[in-house]
Design a protein that fits this description.
The protein is mainly alpha-helical. It has helices at about 20-30, 35-50, 55-75, 80-85, 95-120; strands at about 1-10, 10-15.
Length: about 120
């Protein structure tokens, strides 16, 4: 489990990443977070390289991922994503997204290393 505090539109928000995130995301949004994050990362790289804008569905994916990671860290935030988003003034996706992608990437590396070590201990 990893936590990171990120400044979102002038507010400090705690985000949490763990193996539970894909399940929470699927339960809440009926979507696969792995596919969504791959699409989002590709769009982000394109936006950085070509100066393109994010598509509306990419922004929605970003909001959903940010929400589920924030909710995972703090269950006192609203259960409704629109209520949660409503508390923020405008903020740049370009400032927050790299932080969330880095947190997610660190979590994946930790999970892979844990599985490798488990196989060693189990003698596989």
């Amino acid at each position: 489990m990893l936590k990171k505090t990120i400044n979102v539109g002038g507010k400090e928000v705690v985000f949490r990443s763990s193996a539970t995130i894909p399940r929470l995301y699927r339960a809440k949004f009926k979507r696969d977070i792995f596919k969504d994050l791959a699409k989002l990362e590709k769009s982000y790289e394109g936006a950085q390289a070509e100066g393109e804008e994010f598509a509306i569905d990419d922004l929605e994916i970003f909001e959903n991922v940010a929400y589920i990671m924030a909710y995972h860290a703090d269950h006192t935030i609203p259960a409704d994503i629109d209520e949660w988003l409503d508390q923020f003034d405008m903020f740049s996706i370009y400032e927050v997204l790299p932080e969330i992608l880095a947190l997610w990437g660190t979590n994946l590396i930790t999970d892979i290393d844990s599985k490798k070590n488990l196989k060693k201990v189990a003698g596989k």
